[in-house]
Fold each of these.
Amino acid sequence: MIAAGLLLLAVGAVDLLRQMIRTRRVLAFAIAAVLLIVASAGLDALVAGILAVAVGAIWMWVVPENGPARAGLWPVALLGLAAAACVVVAPGRERPGLLGQLWASYRPGEAVSIDVAVLVIGCLVFLLESGNAVVRIALRSEMGGGAVDADAAPTLKGGRLIGPLERILVFVLTLSAAYTLLAAVLAAKGIVRFPEISRDRDDGNRAEYFLIGSLVSWVTSLAAAFLVWWGIRAG
């Protein structure tokens, strides 16, 4: 389970750093990699931390900041399979490392384990900006295999901000079993977007753009929530 959390944390951190930092990126990536490896050592998961850094570097190459992904949807599928495999193969650990022992000492009552906490943090970080990358890959794939220029694609105002907030809400509400509130949030998005979509009277591209982006975003959040739920049950 800890390996899945570190994996998603590394990939999510790569995309966040690319979005937030425009200069001295190499230094920022190096510092982030060292911090992740040090934290992994403190969690007695050094090998998993090193592999997570390697996967983050591969993700940065196959999923560029701008333009289509070099391998289409395959990087996303392989990342999901790798995270799921980590939860299946190693759902829980008896030796959580120094940081795990500190967590166990200070956590209130029967709180979640450090492995579950890292998995939740990894999912949250991944859903922020990497979720946008997943949606972008799906949209480019649907709109001609990446041949369509991003500037030529239909856009919806606030998508880069609404998307992460929406995914976090879906993730949290799903884990909280607040399904009624979850349905209300998803319905509210459609209602708010309806006036903007209804003006799309030419070929329906904006409506298709909205539907594909929303569905991919929701599926990504639900998959992350299921991964955490699976890890908790298996652990």
Amino acid sequence: MDNIIAVDPGRDKCGVAVLDPSGTVLYQKVVKTDDLMKIIGEQLEACGASALVIGNGTTSQTAQTEIEKNYPKLELVEVDEYYTTQLARQEYWKAKPPKGWRKLLPTSMQVPPEPVDDFVAIILARRFLSDRRGE
């Protein structure tokens, strides 16, 4: 299996991640929706991928149409986004633990100070990988 690109599509911004077959994150970023096709192209060139995993949220259909038009050879797989935002917040705090006074509050009561769409993309990719492995 090759690397995979994962996208959490949104109206204004998208989370993008590239993972290798073992689930290791090679790239993650929150990008403007207008830049999504360019970023996918850059990541295809840099990391290679045979599949693109995309969340099934509100703007998914629009994004899928654009991706199919621009990258017709890429396998497009839709993945359920259920509960991914909550999981992404947990992953965010693991990757970037709170500092200062924020350490005193439970992270479950805090909202990350930046978008977590890239962490959602990682979760979508890992769901896809575990489904492929039959876990």
Amino acid sequence: MTAVGRAVVAARSYLYVPADQPDKVARAADRGADACILDLEDAVAPANKAAARSAVGAFLAGGPGEPAGPQWWVRVNADDAAADIAAVAGPRLTGVVVPKADVDLLAEVHRLLGDAERAGGLPPGSLSVFALLETAGGVLRAEAVAAAPRVVRLGLGEADLAAELCLQPGPDRVELWPLRSRAVLAAAAAGIAPPVGPTETALRDPDRLEATSRLLLRQGFRGRTAIHPAQVPVVNRVFSPTPGEVDAARDVVDRLAAAGRNGSGVAVTADGRMIDAAVARSAREVLDRATAGR
């Protein structure tokens, strides 16, 4: 596992923004998302890609003195990554979202990002990669994808995967749960942040958005993409620890620490449940997210 690109704070919400709509790009920072993905891929028609690429490059060319805002990612085109990366690399860019991620493509993206850093005077390794598993090959090699240079998060392109695998997902999308588990396992094995859940396409159903987001949380995801600003508050709420969860986690950690000072490796909660190192590890994950403001 490489240290390149691993310092990015894991975001709860990633808002997709069409890169060829400058009014939406200009307002994206005020939508409340932890991260914005300026989309040069699916959201942009082929005839508009060159203009969108140039506009995104200009937008991201601001200096380090600008006010803090969300993370800025760009989803590049897998078949035109060289042109996209050369155009958009700048001091405001957090990294690139790589669709149809596989080890060979990620090796090329790693090289291209290094070239862009040198050309733009950016610190080496400052640009990260968010890898989207959207093909059968990518899922089968998920462990290698997660461990590739600069990769800080994984995501799933469930629509692409369902089409390639001839799946017909039902409302709960249970047919895709094994693929979700594969992404969660790969991220954990590589030591990167837990993966980002796929987009909910039912834009006018906040109850469904909350329910499917909570399912993703239980399945090991710690964030989700959004395709409309109205989805962002729900996603942020679901993937943030509640005050009660934070208090309970702090109590677990404190009780185990006190037991350790008394020479014991286990403790007991106020309601009689045993606390050991594994339980404390889950509690610390909650506290880490709370401390990060996530």
Amino acid sequence: MSRKALLIFSVLSLMFTISFSQTAKQKALEKRRYQLQQEIVRVNKLLFKNQKKEENILGYLSDLNKRIQVRSDLIKAIVAEANFFKNEISKNEKLKSELEKELKFLKEDYAQMILKSYKSKSEQSKLMFLLSSKNFYQGYKRFRYMQQYADFRKKQGDTIVAKTKKIAEITSDLKVQRNKKEALAKKNKVEADQLAFEKADQLDLMKQIKSKENQYLADLKKKQVEERKIDLEIERVIKEAIAASRARTKAKKTKIDVNAKPSGFALTPEGRALANRFEQNRGKLPWPVSEGVVTRNYGVIRHPVYKNNTIDSRGIWIATKKNANARAVFKGTVLAIQSVSGRYAVYVQHGNYISLYNNLDKVYVAKGQKVNLKQPLGVVFTDKVSGNTELKFQVWRDSKKQNPIYWLAKM
């Protein structure tokens, strides 16, 4: 391959790579916006459809904060996408202007070439030019020159056609890009207006809460104490299950997994194989409800209303529709069923992993029962005061809690 051909190939490859990269970026921005739009729909449907504002003002404000956060993220996504089109429009307008200048020059040059060719009486002049050669070599050279001149004219004509076509394509792209940018601007206006309305509602609620702050803080602390008791009970159940598994293995002298931790479950080869399959599906597990919105994240987080108050969240809380079923995220065995204050928690064991489904109103399964992927385990409890239906979902590896978000597939 010649150096010129190699250079042309390199330039074309670079242009293709840039074009592919821009298309990928545009699709990623569109996908992000669409995901946030869908989350807004889920938030409205699952958090506000049955919400009782007057009876649960703290919960309502917490949910409103969630909607404000998602809408703010949506506005940022819309702005990012609009800026992408703004940059693309600017680049295409510049490219179109350059091509139009080149095309104008090419057309003028081509017109002069045609005019000169016409004035020279074309075919007769070519023949005389050849016949007047002093020798064969000069005649051949003149013949080659005429061929190259004809080729140059053809290539110049082709270039004019190609540039004209390219300008038409860019003009069409610009029209599409401007329409998309305008549509995004309208979307942004709608979302910004709605956000302003929600923030005004948020401010009004904060004033109402402030007037009864001591009462609300006392209720909050009471709930946190109850939640801590449940967390300790969950830890106790898991540690006792681990101890029981090791005791059974010791009594039966069963062959166990040599890689198992001394403080973890005593695993048979079958149990280790199941745990391995569970690990391989990290980030791919189905959600424990068919439709949901995360209302509380994992880890030490600030309270959504009282920012100075922190929460040690052992899992995630997922708001779902009324009468929704909690479903197994992976095949396994029901390790335990726990009853706390009239609600239930189902523990499903997957080797040395446990998926925990808490805040159930009814349970469909029994201890020791084998369950399959997405098998219904029970009905998620609906709070009569708030109107919310929330599943409290946890993942454990032996006695160590995990962040469930890292295990579940992206919604």
